[in-house]
Amino acid sequence: MSLNRELRILTRALLIAFAVVAAASAYWASIERDRLLAREDNPRLLEARASIRRGAIYDRDLDLLVHTEEQSEVDEGTQRRLVRHYLSPAFYGALGYFSLTYGTGGFENQYDRILSGADRPRSLDQIFFAAPVEGSDIQITLDSQVQITLRDAFENHQGAAVVMSVPSGDILAILSHPTYDPNALDENWAVLLEDSGNPFFNRALQGRYQPGGMTQTPLLALFEISGIALISPFPQASAPVTLENILMTCAVTPPRAALTLVEAYRFGCPAPFLQLGAALQPSLVARALQQLNQATQPSAEPANFENVDNLRNSLLGQGEQIVSPLDIALLAASILNEGNAPQPRSLLATRYPDAGEWAPSTDSSASVPVMTAAAAARLQEIMALTDTEFAGNFQTTDALVGAHSALAYSGEGALVWFMGFARMPTGQGIAVAVVIEDTRDPADARDIGIRALQAAIAASSPSATLP
Amino acid sequence: MTTLSLMPVRRVNRPIPPDRVEQRLLSVAGLFLFVNTFALTLVSQRGQDWIHYAIWVIAALAGHLWLKRRLPDRDPLLFPLVMLLSGWGMVLIERLAPNFADRQTVWLVLGVLTMSVVVAIPNLLARLRRYRYTLLITGLVLLVATILLGVNPSGQIGAPRLWLGFGDIFFQPSELLKIILVTFLASYLAEQYPSLQMLRDRSKRRFPSLSPTVMGPVVFMFIISFVVLLWQRDLGTATLFFLVFLLMLYLATGFIWVLVGGAGLVILAGITAYFVFAVVQLRIDIWLNPWLDPDGRAFQIVQSLFAFAEGGIFGRGIGQGLPTSIPVVHSDFIFAALAEEWGLIGVIGLVAGIGTIVTRGLRSASLHSARPYLSLMAAGLSLLIAIQSLMIMAGVLKLIPLTGVTLPFLSYGGSSLLVNFIIIGLLLQLSTDEDERVA
Fold it and tell me: Which of A180, A184, A119, A134 is nearest to A347 (CA)?
């Protein structure tokens, strides 16, 4: 008698066991692959990110703002790692951050694919020899002078501002304050998260504020189209308006009680706008107020303007409608650009690693009609005429300037808005929007707006001219 | 005068001589390692990898020439496959833990030398059979010595002390104990083979009486395994001993209930160990659900599964993955590292390689099926490689709880490599059909 039968059985059983091992490998390597590789606790994700030499970021004058370099000091036996350096404090927050632990934010997030080289196929060196991935450099539209001016102007305030070139839509400066130091993000992350000033919140883009007196600009355009006389005296124009428990007054105290609509607009007095707006068709008012939401989507459920309270609140800019500083900048830009809002743009050009030439960005879209050219021209004229004191700051520039300040109420507090533009003799244009959360004085916002416009006029060289 | 007619020439398909087959397979293995060493050099920018490769070539050539002289009728697949796997392991260790690569290369050379000595000892198998009790006592002494004097080279407090140290050299006696136990069992069961067969005939495949002849060694082996588990907390070795023994007992008796009963004992022991030993409880818990604590207790197995996923079908390529994120990857988890860098293709190649070694060993067992000692010896040695490989591969893949044994020929570890080369030396002897090997 021999062992052959048992040996045969054993051999088959072992071969089946080996086949099961191979099948289990295939299961993890194919069926479960995507799920496993996408897990955040997979160190390969982190390692892959850490090995990438991210591209640098330059401003519109090709001054270096951010770059990546190897850590200068490492312990013996420790692998040298790449470190991201943010050079200019004025750009903190605007550029965002890159962290192996916390990911990306701001422009670092918006242009992550370019900066991390993910927009290009892997080279043979990378596929076969694990050569490190290098991202492309980017040139953004921000201007250092304007950005530094804004940063300095906001030193003691909480709020946001946007400066935009017209008609190109180039964002020349964008600021949200308070902000954070992206060079020390990992160390300060927990503290920053707890900070009551919410420094990670980009107020310029993500901020949603009550427009308050900013509604007066589209309403003025609506009154003009509706044939309402803008220069006839309006009795009791400076009278305060009651909104629930709030007494809404003019943003700037007027010299007399009776004002024309243009004067009421200049002093930010709500009464005439409330009274005249309530007399118009609610649908017309709703359409006019939509001009305020060029960057942000209005709320999914449009306010029911058939309801008297809703209409009243919206006319005062204290309803359900909320706007961002970018929305207001786009409104100013559309007034300057024959009623068409340019599409905001922040990327000028890209450059492959080790390439000398910059490739211009093709990332541009057509402008969007917001109001008629006639209404825009009339608003331009009114805004330019209403504040002669403001215009006095730009006499040496020969620029046509216009502005509007407003007050808005938010909960227990208030905030102030500024919207302004400058049209230079060359035809170049600049639009500015400012919001300050910690003051009730519109002059504070206006001062920042003036400084921003002056800096932009001095530094700007828009790629296109206005029509 | 004779006329030569134009007869059609018949081509005779002569089998390729074993030496030639071995030569060709070794060349393929050498080419595979050359390509991988070259790729690793490009990635790591290190030159010393070639020294290890050169040593491997010399060891392979010397081993081949020695075998050609001493065992001309050997199985031509075993040595090339073993050299391929051990060379692959050497390249992996260079990649994963370069500091250990020199030492592993030295152990590889010692392994080939030891294997050469094993195949050269006349009547070795007969001698082993003759001195089986001496061997068993030696094994038990080693076990007791390890329990009393065992150390852990890492010096880590609380780590299993499975090594005996002689200066800077450490040896794991349980590795040698594997061969001793297989030899003893093959010899014992061969001696009992006629009575086992009679028992089998009487029972006519019904449930047999619990004969002391059968139950004696079962209890003995269970005690040894349990001692290993209890004192050394070495779950892997204990399970390996017991499974190999069960399968050898099955081969000798043909009783399927041996396997069923043995499996029941393993499960019972597992359940007991779960409640008694924290290390066993930990391994079973993380096996059941590693995702509950992926950054803590289940870190190793979770990282291993990431490695398989990262490798995909074709692998990342040598030096291009991140297998070093797995703790102790060069030892217990070298299979996961291989999967990450060579992908499923590499895994299938490895499984096929080990599977072929095992089936060739079992073929030798079949060759000697009329001579129970040789047959059981060949089967037992093959089972050692098979069960150990399956245990660690299945553990790394989360098919079974992790048992902490090495992957034969690939994992870092001198004792393991040396003992596996001894096993191959014995299997090479057993692959020849020479009557004088029977005592």
Answer: A119
Percentages helix, strand, coil for chain B, rounded to the nearest 5? 70, 0, 25
CA B326/CA A291 separation, integer angstroms:
57
The answer, for A17 touching chain B at a CB cutoff of 8 Å, is yes
In this structure, the number of other CB atoms found within 10 A of the CB of residue A298 comes to 16
B254/A5 CB distance under 8 A: yes
Assess contact for A95 and A105: CB atoms under 8 A: no
To the nearest whole number, what is the mean pLDDT of chain A?
A: 86
CA distances A110 to A66, A96, A103, A114, A170, Å, are 15, 9, 12, 9, 15
- Which domains does chain A possess? 212-345+366-459 (3.40.710.10)
User: Is the Cβ of B197 closer than 8 Å to some Cβ of chain A?
Assistant: yes
pLDDT in tens, B369-393: 889 999 999 999 999 999 999 999 9
A46 touches chain B (CB under 8 A): no
pLDDT digits (tens, 9 = 90+) for B15-62: 788 889 999 999 999 999 999 999 999 887 777 779 999 999 999 999
DSSP A200-246: TS-HHHH--B--GGGGHHHHHHHHHHTT--SSSEETTTT--EEETTE
- Is A42 in contact with B321 (Cβ distance < 8 A)? no
**DSSP state letter for A94:** T
Size (chain A), residues: 467
> How is residue A163 written in tokens?
């400066």
The token pair that represents A254 in the structure block? 């007027």
Residue A227 has pLDDT above 90, yes or no: no
ipTM of the complex: 0.91
Using CA atoms, how far apart are residues B247 and B258, in angstroms rounded to an integer? 8
Chain A touched by B399 (CB under 8 Å): yes
Question: How far apart are the CA of B12 and the nearest CA of chain A, in angstroms?
Answer: 31
**What is the DSSP-derived secondary structure letter of residue A298?**
P
Chain A CB within 8 Å of residue B344 CB = yes
Question: Residue for token digits 């129970």?
Answer: B372
How many whole angstroms separate alpha carbon A239 and alpha carbon A242?
10
Interface of B with A in 234-293 (CB under 8 A): 247, 250-252, 254
- CA A377 vs. chain centroid, Å, equals 26
Q: What is the pTM of this model?
A: 0.69
